[in-house]
């Protein structure tokens, strides 16, 4: 049995069984016991014990050594067939003994009893309990241990003892008794030469003992020490006491002992009303509040007894829960209790369940002397007290299920509202609790948040600045509150200036520093971060490297070099702590302030060698994934060769070209950032390959500025490392951009450079020549393009590249048709189309369908031409699904295809189809030209011309169909296209 065990830490670490001392072994083993005793029954993880035992120098065999210490402690403390004392749990150990068996436990119980007695007005009992508390001390805590852990705990416990000594001295002085405290006060003052309250009490005791000169000397010594060490004078209260002693103030003499108080009349039962103030500036969250109130349904027999409000740090969970509690309070007439459990605060401040129960029971009027000392019996008493009461208990800032489970009422008449950064899934599963997950504010709620604090007129006057502030604050209430506080403190400041100040911080957290730990973004985020396991904390830091908003599990696994199942588990831990949010299975996101905090930690904690490895793995996974996606958009072997991915690099695979195109669209900005990073972080080859893998997507989607940007970076990177092949691909990418802008001379110059770079690579030269023929076609040199195509075909055949050969044959067919060799061109085009389609080559498929349709149309075979036109339009529509880029190549292909199809149907006298197709095509053209209009500078003369053209086009499209609508529409279209061509847009539309 454990009831015969006693322990001591307020002095040397010792243990007794039935009055006989127990041998506790080496200092390290005694330290292990002290760690477990000071945890007060809480499970201590192995990592936590290792850090306490060895600090930063944790040996590799630490886990085994700790197991040995625990095994030896069990042998020393536990009797055979007796009750276990040290319990093993997953990942750690717990020592569970009643508090009264430990001197520190008894010290705490006496202090709590003194506080309760003082609250009742019983100063005599309070002083007795404080004397008994100090009597537990037998010297310095853990005086036989020499470690950082022991030294830290000695300091913390010593401060607690000093506070008790000061409280006892004040009580004794009030009761007229003081001389017996002179020695401990003098010793404490000597050890704490700058603690003014301690010196004040010592001076009063000396004065009451008739030793005024010594009291004055205490003041002189304190004054000198404060001046020498801090450059300050004693506080006014100390100076006043000194003057009164100097003048011999008779009031300072000890008062007579107070008479015994009369027997108090029975006081009415106190109904606790402890809820914090409901903030008048609270705004938003109305839907969540209404859902919570509706779900709870106070008084309903099936109403949940527990509500959990959870979410990431800084979301305003406490403010929300307090608002909800005030709205619910009238339904709980027996009282409202509030307790901050401090589960995620800085330092070792978490409220133990036993301490929480003592507070709650005391608030419910249970006398302190009736409180048991075991957790299970305390819980039973607590639930018994609440059995016939309807109370609302707000438990704020809970750490985990273990902390709050004993605090839940057993009766359905009461309701517990819990806030936590953890989702407390175990509590939900065990109790059926109703959960309220809080998310970031919406843009509207964030704007209203600022308006409530700064006033509607000020916010309404600068809408753009407000939008920028909301965006920079990531719609996080705490960040918004800090910015609002700064703006409110300086009402003359423009919000635009504050927005610029925030923007200038470039995502750093310095702009969101608060005056204390409860309002400082870094401090608040750190409380959640420190609660993570070491592996999850490392994952959190490394994720900041990834520039995207949505992080897949495979990305985290790659960055942390972990198996994917392990990464899944760590992401779940991060999500439970609300440091990331799962938005779809395997996909997670976070707000920018969390990313900024993680990035700070990564730079501070992780070594340069690890960060280099992380960058390498991250670049590889992006490169290989982009390569896989690009191969689905084009099967041509027209790319630089890639080796096998390194270990722990997990590229994504795709199920089809739509999946690949969608991935490029969703990761466009991420890939751009990674190309830019490549040249700045020494990943030049990855930057070059990534830029080339993006070419088909950027081309089709109409991101020609980005296509130019990444290829200029790639060319610079290739030249920096002397990679001629990579430089050749960059020149080809730039040539493609020049073609889009009709800069044919520059395009040919880039292709000349590419041919020179590919001097020893026949296949790359063949593809470059095939690109040349595209330039010739756009220039209208169809004969020159035909000769270029034949040269490319010869090189493809030498390289045994059938898909490249037929891609060039498609160019031959197009130019044959334009030179009047329509039947030969059709035969060639149909042959190329079959090969390309069978190979799954979709980049060339659109051109092949268009070329075959054009040949049939010239031959007068309109039904066949219409079939291929429809296939061409449907193909481009399908590939562009989900994209609203009206200037993209896919959008243009559909527009031109519809015009050609309308022309066919008009020729075939299918006028309804022709009118519908032409109207849709012109509507699409209007959208494209409107986007071009927005891109033109306000000072450009072309802007007015294009505005008038758009107005005429839109006015015409507003007219209803009629008998002559089609010919009139074609005239409007031709005029619109002619003006668009002059402005550099729209030349593709009628080019057949």
TrEMBL record:
Family that this chain belongs to: Belongs to the AfsR/DnrI/RedD regulatory family.
Domain of life the protein comes from: Bacteria
InterPro entries for the chain: AfsR-DnrI-RedD_regulator, BTAD, NB-ARC, OmpR/PhoB-type_DNA-bd, P-loop_NTPase, Sig_transdc_resp-reg_C-effctor, TPR-like_helical_dom_sf, WH-like_DNA-bd_sf
Alphabetized SUPFAM superfamilies for the sequence: C-terminal effector domain of the bipartite response regulators, P-loop containing nucleoside triphosphate hydrolases, TPR-like
GO aspect biological process, one term: phosphorelay signal transduction system
GO MF term set: ADP binding; DNA binding
Pfam family, one: BTAD
Segments of the chain annotated as binding DNA: 1-97
UniProt domain OmpR/PhoB-type: residue ranges: 1-97
Keywords: Coiled coil, DNA-binding, Transcription, Transcription regulation
Coiled coil (residue ranges): 908-959
Name of the molecule in the record: DNA-binding SARP family transcriptional activator
């Amino acid at each position: 049995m454990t009831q015969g065990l006693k322990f001591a830490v307020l002095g040397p670490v010792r243990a007794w069984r039935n009055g006989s001392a127990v041998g506790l072994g080496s200092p390290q083993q005694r330290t292990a016991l002290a760690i477990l005793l000071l945890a007060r029954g809480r499970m201590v993880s192995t990592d936590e014990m290792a850090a306490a035992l060895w600090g930063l120098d944790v040996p590799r065999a630490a886990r085994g050594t700790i197991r040995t210490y625990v095994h030896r402690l069990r042998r020393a403390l536990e009797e055979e067939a007796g009750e276990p004392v040290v319990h093993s749990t997953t990942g750690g150990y717990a020592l569970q003994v009643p508090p009264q068996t430990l001197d520190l436990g008894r010290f705490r119980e006496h202090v709590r009893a003194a506080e309760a007695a003082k609250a009742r007005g019983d100063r005599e009992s309070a002083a007795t309990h404080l004397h008994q508390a100090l009597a537990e001390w037998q010297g310095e805590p853990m005086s036989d241990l020499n470690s950082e852990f022991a030294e830290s705990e000695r300091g913390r416990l010593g401060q607690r003892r000093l506070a008790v000594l000061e409280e006892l001295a004040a009580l004794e002085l009030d009761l007229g008794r003081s001389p017996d405290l002179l020695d401990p006060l003098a010793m404490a003052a000597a050890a704490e030469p700058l603690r003014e309250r301690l010196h004040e009490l010592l001076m009063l005791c000396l004065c009451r003992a008739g030793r005024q000169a010594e009291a004055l000397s205490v003041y002189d010594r304190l004054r000198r020490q404060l001046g020498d060490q801090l450059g300050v004078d004693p506080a006014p209260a100390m100076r006043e006491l000194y003057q009164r002693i100097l003048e011999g103030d008779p009031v300072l003499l000890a008062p007579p002992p107070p008479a015994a108080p009369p027997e108090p009349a029975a006081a009415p039962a106190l109904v606790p009303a402890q809820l914090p103030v409901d903030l008048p500036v609270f705004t938003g969250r109305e839907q969540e509040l209404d859902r919570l109130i509706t779900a709870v349904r106070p008084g309903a027999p099936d109403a949940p007894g527990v509500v959990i409000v959870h979410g990431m740090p800084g979301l305003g969970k406490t403010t929300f829960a307090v608002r909800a509690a005030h709205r619910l309070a009238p339904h709980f007439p027996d009282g409202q209790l509030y307790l901050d459990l401090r589960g995620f605060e800085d330092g070792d401040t978490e409220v133990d369940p036993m301490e929480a129960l003592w507070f709650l029971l005391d608030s419910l009027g249970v006398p302190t002397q009736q409180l048991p000392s075991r957790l299970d019996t305390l819980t039973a008493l607590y639930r018994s007290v609440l059995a016939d009461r309807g109370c609302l208990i707000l438990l704020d800032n809970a750490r985990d299920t273990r902390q709050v489970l004993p605090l839940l009422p057993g009766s359905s008449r009461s309701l517990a509202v819990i806030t936590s950064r953890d989702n407390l899934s175990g509590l939900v599963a065990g109790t059926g609790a109703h959960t309220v997950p809080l998310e970031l504010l919406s843009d509207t709620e964030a704007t209203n948040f600022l308006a409530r604090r700064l006033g509607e007129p000020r916010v309404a006057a600068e809408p753009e600045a407000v939008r920028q502030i909301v965006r920079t604050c990531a719609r996080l209430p705490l960040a918004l509150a800090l910015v609002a506080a700064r703006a409110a403190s300086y009402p003359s400041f423009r919000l635009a200036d504050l927005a610029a100040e925030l923007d200038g911080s470039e995502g750093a957290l310095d702009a969101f520093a608060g005056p204390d730990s409860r309002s400082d973004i870094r401090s608040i985020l750190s409380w959640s971060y420190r609660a993570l396991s070491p592996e999850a904390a490392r994952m959190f830091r490394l994720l900041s490297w990834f520039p995207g908003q949505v992080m897949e599990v495979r990305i985290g696994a790659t960055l942390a070099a972990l198996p994917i199942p392990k990464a899944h588990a760590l992401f779940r831990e991060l999500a439970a702590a609300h440091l990331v949010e799962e938005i779809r299975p395997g996909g997670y996101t976070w707000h920018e302030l969390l990313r900024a905090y993680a990035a700070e930690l990564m730079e501070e904690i992780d070594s340069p060698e690890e960060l280099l490895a992380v960058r390498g793995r991250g670049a590889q996974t992006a490169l290989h994934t982009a390569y896989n996606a690009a191969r689905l958009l084009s099967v041509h072997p027209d790319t630089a060769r890639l080796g096998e991915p390194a270990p722990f690099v997990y590229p994504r695979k795709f199920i089809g070209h739509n999946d690949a195109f969608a991935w490029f669209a969703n990761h466009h900005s991420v890939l751009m950032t990674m190309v830019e990073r490549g040249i700045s972080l020494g990943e030049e080859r990855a930057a070059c390959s990534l830029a080339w893998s993006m070419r088909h997507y950027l081309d089709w989607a109409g991101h020609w500025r980005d296509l130019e940007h990444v290829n200029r970076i790639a060319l610079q990177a290739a030249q920096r490392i002397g990679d001629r092949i990579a430089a050749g691909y960059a020149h080809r990418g730039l040539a493609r951009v020049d073609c889009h802008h009709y800069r044919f001379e520059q395009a040919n110059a880039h292709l000349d450079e590419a041919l020179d770079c590919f001097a020893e690579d026949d296949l790359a030269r063949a593809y470059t020549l095939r690109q040349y023929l595209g330039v010739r076609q756009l220039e209208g040199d169809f004969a020159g393009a035909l000769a270029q195509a034949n040269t490319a075909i010869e090189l493809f055949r030498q390289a045994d590249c059938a898909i490249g050969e037929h891609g060039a044959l498609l160019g031959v067919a197009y130019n044959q048709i334009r030179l009047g060799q329509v039947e030969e061109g059709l035969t060639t085009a149909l042959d190329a189309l079959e090969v390309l389609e069978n190979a799954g080559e979709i980049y060339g498929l659109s051109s092949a369908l268009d070329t075959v349709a054009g040949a049939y149309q010239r031959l007068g075979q309109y039904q066949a031409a219409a079939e291929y036109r429809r296939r061409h339009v449907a193909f481009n529509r399908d590939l562009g699904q989900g994209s609203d880029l009206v200037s993209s190549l896919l959008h243009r292909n559909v527009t031109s295809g519809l015009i050609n199809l309308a022309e066919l149907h008009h020729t075939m006298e299918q006028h309804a189809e022709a009118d519908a197709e032409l109207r849709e095509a012109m509507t699409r053209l209007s959208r494209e030209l409107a986007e071009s209009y927005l891109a033109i500078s306000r000072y450009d003369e072309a802007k007015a011309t294009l505005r008038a053209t758009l107005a005429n086009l839109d006015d015409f499209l507003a007219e209803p169909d009629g008998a002559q609508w089609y010919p009139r529409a074609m005239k409007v279209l031709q005029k619109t296209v002619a003006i668009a061509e002059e402005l550099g847009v729209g030349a593709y539309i009628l080019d057949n």
